[in-house]
Amino acid sequence: MTVEEEIEELKSDYIICQCYEVSFGDIMEAIENGCSSIDEIMHQTHAGYGCERCQSRRDDANGDRDIHLSEILKYSKSKE
Ligand code: FES
C-alpha cells in the first residue's frame, strides 16, 4: 500500500502527533484553513513541537509514526 492509499484510509480521529494528540482531522482542517507548509500546520495545531517524529520520515529514524505531516501535506497538494 502506498502512503497516499494509507492516508486515504485514515479516519479523522487517527492521531498523527502523539505528543500533542493532534488528529488527522485536525491536520486536514488546518490545511483547509490555508496552512500550506509544515511550519504553518505546526503553528496552527501544535503538532510536531514535541519529539518531532511526526514531522517527516527523515525526523522519524526509528519509524515510530506511520504517517507524517510532510506526507499529509504532499498528499493534500496532489489533490488540489
Ligand atoms: S509525535 Fe508529534 S511531536 Fe511527537
Question: What does the secondary structure layout of this molecule look like, with pairings?
Answer:
Blueprint: H1 3-8, E1 15-17, E2 22-23, H2 24-32, H3 38-45, H4 69-78
Helix pairs in contact: 2-3
Description:
- The chain has four helices and two strands.
- It has helices spanning 3-8, 24-32, 38-45, 69-78, and strands at 15-17, 22-23.
- It has a two-stranded antiparallel sheet.
- A hairpin with a 4-residue loop joins strand 1 (15-17) and strand 2.
- FE2/S2 (inorganic) cluster is lined by residues 17-19, 47-54.
- FE2/S2 (inorganic) cluster binds next to loops.
Keywords:
80 residues, mainly alpha, 2 strands, binds FE2/S2 (inorganic) cluster
Give a concise summary.
With 80 residues, this protein is mainly alpha-helical. Helix content is 41%, strand content 6%. It has a two-stranded antiparallel ribbon.
For the sheet with most strands, the description reads: 2 strands, antiparallel
| DSSP, total strands | 2
Mean pLDDT across every amino acid position:
96
List ligands, each type once: FE2/S2 (inorganic) cluster
The helix/strand order is HEEHHH
Question: What is the count of DSSP helices, taking H or I runs of 4+ residues?
Answer: 4
Radius of gyration: 11 Å
Uncertain stretches of 5 or more adjacent residues: none
Please give the order of strands in the largest beta sheet. Answer: 1-2
How much beta, percentage-wise?
A: 5-15%
